[in-house]
Each structure stands twice: as C-alpha cells, then as structure tokens.
Amino acid sequence: MVRVLITGSTDGFGLEAARQLVQRGHTVYLHARNQVRADYAKAKCPGAAGVLIADLTSVIETRKMAEEANTIGAFDSVILNAGLLYGPFRKTPDTGVPAMVFVNILAPYILTCLLTPPKRLTFIASVLHREANTDLKDIFWFERGETEFKDFPAYCDSKFHVMLLANAVARRFKSTSVTSVHPGWVPTKIGTSDATDKLEDGVDARL
C-alpha cells in the first residue's frame, strides 16, 4: 500500500481519485482551501487519512502546506490536481499574479520544490495546451494586467506552462517518476455538464 497526497481533492477528479485509492487500501491525504471544504471532503471520503488545508493562491499557505506534508513523511505519490479555469483576474495579495495562474502554475512549482520528492509525481495537464501562446512573454500578466485578462486563453497558457514544468522536473528528479496527464473532457466544475467523457475514465488515466 502507498501514501498519496492529492491537491484540490474536495470534488471532481481529486475527490473521485481519493475515493478509489482509499477503496484499494491506500493511505490518502486530501487537500482543501479552507476548513469548510475540508469538512465536506472528509465527509465524502471518510476513509482518508487526513486533510491538509491551504489556499493555493497564497505563497505563505502553499509553503505551510508543504511543511505540514513533510512532517507526515515522504509520499509515494503526489497528484498536483488543484486548478482554476473560469473567473476574473483576482490579483493574489502577496504576488500580484492572477489567482488562476498562481494555482495552476506557481503553487505546483512551490510544492514540487519544497515537498520531499515522492516516488511518483503527477501533474494535471490539458490538451488545451495546444491553444496556448508559447512565446513565454508576460506569463504572470504583470504587463498586460487585469484589463487585458481573459480566463480561457490564460488557462490554455497555464496548461502549456504545466507541461514545461513537468518536463523540467522530470529532468531534475532522477529518483521520481514524473508524468503529466490530460484526463479528458469530463463533467467537473471546469469541464461542465456538457462534457462528453466519463469522470471515471479520467480518474483511471491519473492512477
């Protein structure tokens, strides 16, 4: 049996993956952005070993989560699942980066750098990285700012950057299996109810 940490596991893919892993007898730690969401996730996945709480739009809270995870011990698998798509710019207080960009790119980067390297590290990517602007200019929106922000193009760009991050980590973490996964278009908050694929199939792709 293995020890697993899943970010963004209060609903959707993250919660379903946690449930399936618990059913298989693994030790699973959930992640929620606040106590209310943590209580909800624990009720939905009562077999989970615990819930780490952190708002992944905050440098301080993301670093604190890494520290708390490290006190638990090394994880066999970490699934970096937390992500945002729809919504306004929402400037993060400690960096000025849009919340979506922070959650999708900077939080996984911080966690990857600070967590004790797991045996397996999974980044949740998307086929939408093919729609990204790949010139890497102004990836944190400091120049364009809130007036030019559009959530869908920003999401596509962020998933392209996730792919770059995964590739960079794979080259550097010699003892960790690093993968990036496109789970399909499935009915989650991001995928919406119009999605044509099955949630269970997306979870199978991750596990």
UniProtKB/TrEMBL annotation:
<comment type="similarity">
    <text>Belongs to the short-chain dehydrogenases/reductases (SDR) family.</text>
</comment>
<keyword id="KW-0521">NADP</keyword>
<keyword id="KW-0560">Oxidoreductase</keyword>
<dbReference type="Pfam" id="PF00106">
    <property type="entry name" value="adh_short"/>
</dbReference>
<protein>
    <submittedName>
        <fullName>Uncharacterized protein</fullName>
    </submittedName>
</protein>
<dbReference type="InterPro" id="IPR002347">
    <property type="entry name" value="SDR_fam"/>
</dbReference>
<dbReference type="InterPro" id="IPR036291">
    <property type="entry name" value="NAD(P)-bd_dom_sf"/>
</dbReference>
<dbReference type="GO" id="GO:0016491">
    <property type="term" value="F:oxidoreductase activity"/>
</dbReference>
